[in-house]
Design goal:
Blueprint (H helix, E strand, L loop, with lengths): L1 H10 L10 E3 L7 H13 L6 E3 L6 H8 L8 E6 L2 E5 L3
Parallel strand pairs: 1-2, 2-3
Antiparallel strand pairs: 3-4
Helix pairs in contact: 1-2, 2-3
Length: 91
């Protein structure tokens, strides 16, 4: 998780390439706390990111809710809930 937080801090201060449309974090041990960092980074640096894949993680209800913020402009958010895959189109 420390690596993810470091990435999120960096993400806040860089200009993202326009071809970064999908960010796959499947199986990266993402938690509710990590989702807060991701949401903060995405809102601080508006990007062209359209799909965020959090499958095989534990974002929790509050983490998912943070990432569903319409200001983040995600079209697709993939995650698991009660061992079932969920993909929200559009958010």
């Amino acid at each position: 998780m420390a690596d993810l937080l470091k990435y999120c801090c960096t993400f806040k201060h860089i200009h993202c390439p326009t071809d970064l449309l999908i960010f796959r974090l499947s199986g990266c041990l993402i938690t509710e706390e990590s989702c807060a960092s991701l949401a903060s980074a995405l809102s601080s640096n508006p990007s062209h990111l359209r799909e965020l894949d959090l499958s095989y993680n534990h974002p929790g209800d509050s983490g998912v809710k943070l990432l569903q913020d319409p200001h983040l402009k995600l079209d697709v958010l993939k995650y698991e809930q009660n061992s079932h895959s969920v993909a929200l189109f559009p958010l």
